[in-house]
Amino acid sequence: QVQLVESGGGLVQTGGSLRLSCAASGRTFSGSGVGWFRQAPGKEREFVAVINWSDESTSYADSVKGRFTISRDNTKNTVYLQMNSLKPEDTAVYYCAHRAYWGQGTQVTVSS
Predict the structure, then answer these.
(1) Is residue 28 predicted with pLDDT exceeding 90?
(2) Closest CA relative to residue 32, chosen from 101, 80, 95
(3) Is the pLDDT of residue 30 over 80?
(4) How many angstroms separate the CA atoms of 66 and 85, rounded?
(5) Which residues have C-beta within 8 Å of that of residue 103, sequence separation ≥ 6?
(6) Looking at residue 79, what DSSP letter applies?
(7) Burial class (CB within 10 angstroms; exposed 0-12, middle 13-18, buried 19+) of 47
(8) Average pLDDT rounded to a whole number, residues 26-54
(9) Of 96, 93, 59, whose CA–CA distance to 69 is shortest?
(10) Helix, strand, or coil (residue 41)
(11) Could you report how far apart the first and last alpha carbons of the chain are, in Å?
């Protein structure tokens, strides 16, 4: 079983940056992808970015391309989401996911 713990959320002004972390414990990330998702109040959870643990290939939602970067550190069994040029519409709870496992989420709030 894998436990995922997100951290790094907070309050930032428009145009600011945050780096989210997703650390795995119990078992290491392996094989398939590790993804970031987000859910804003009153909206459905949506895909943000994913990284393939094996070959580090990445994919992004159109809304974050060019602003967000997903990366991994296999020595720390951690996936990061670097978020730059943040906008108020990026405000949401951000979750990481791997296989059937989800973290508890971390709140990101971007003030205008």
Answers:
(1) no
(2) 101
(3) no
(4) 9
(5) 4, 5, 6, 22, 95, 96, 97
(6) E
(7) middle
(8) 91
(9) 59
(10) coil
(11) 40
Tokens of 10: 């907070």
CB neighbour burial string for 89-110, b if at least 16 within 10 angstroms, e if fewer = ebbbbbbbbbeeebbebbebeb
DSSP reduced 3-state for 89:
helix
State how far the Cα of 88 lies from the Cα of 73, in Å rounded to an integer: 29
In this structure, the strands spanning 78-83 and 18-25 are: antiparallel
Q: Name the token pair of 63.
A: 């809304």
Alpha-carbon distance 91 to 53, whole Å? 27
State how far the Cα of 26 lies from the Cα of 59, in Å rounded to an integer.
26
